[in-house]
Amino acid sequence: MTIAQFPAFARQYWGKIRSRLLAGTYHPVPVRRVFIPKPNGDLRPLGIPTVLDRVIQQAIAQVLTPLFDPHFSKHSYGFRYGRNAHEAVRSVQEAAQAGYGDAVDCDLKSFFDTVKFDRLMRLLARRVSDKRVLRLIGAYLRAGVKLEDGQVEATTQGVPQGGPLSPLLANIMLDPLDKELERRGLRFARYADDFLILVRSSRAAQRVMQSVTRYVETRLKLVVNRQKSKAAPLAQCAFLGFEIRRGRIVWTQKAHQRFKERIQEITSRSRGVSTFCMLRELKRYVVGWLNYFGISQLYRVVPELDQWLRRRVRLYYWKQWKRPWTRRRQLIRLGIHPAEVSKATRSHRGYWFMAGTSIVQRALDNRWLTERGVPNLTRQWVEMHYGKQNPKFDPAAANLTGTA
What we know:
The protein is of the alpha+beta class and about 400 residues long.
């Protein structure tokens, strides 16, 4: 059943479903197993509920959130109304500026897949008195997983990622950890299962690392990934795709590299999509990426990345004009003198080299690219940090015009 088909289904069958929910006889359908790629090349398992179960889970979440959320820690930022990852990163920056130069970067191994049902249900029962609601949540946790070959696999632990209720259950499960860190007087920031503890010395970081690992594994019955967890200077710790260097927020080298790899995928000529679709997808991705990573306070890399992006688009068009006569016709149409055109059309240099030549840059200048929807990273970054009306900002100095 699709989402569009659900309203008609609900009008016909909701009475029966409601009766089963009230009587405690409703049985959720096993979730569908889907794998999505992770940045490190591994696959992340998702459990996609049916449309009906998503609606019921969303209803449960909307009722339970007001019961639990006001009691969550102020240092918890993930999956909470009015809070976001940027606030979590800025809280780490504030700690760094206050002299907390070392950190405990603790990684929970397969957190969503290792949550113990009995522990989670006890935490839920502290604020949920209706046994029917608890039984229904328990039924969702134990509903099983339908694999790609059609077989159903039983679930004995874990919270399936993909359902509307899972984020709230994750915060409920990790709230005791937040309370324990607060009780110890530690500064920290947590976003879902990703958290960073800030301390003032390397010795304190080592001590906190050991004690927190012991608490997580003995009290919460979760697993700490010792290969990825570390006690180190804050500048060497990544948090939500950012690092804090000399008190400034900077996106990580890994995020920078992933951006370039994704742009190369979008602007690849072998994808078999139209130029219009490529430009639309490019703009959507770049604007979304910078809306998140644009809080980085290191300006120097932004124009460099902007120039690289424009060169990728010029390379796309140069490949599109496959034949020398096509390139000659297009260059002349774009204002290049015929005497100069032969220098480019007869060149045997590679695509990337040609995309950086002055002839191609003048033909496909920044204004021409902007008219076709190529996003401008530099302008967007400046507007995010200084507003659209910034008298001190020189567009020419920031490569917003010209041929770079």
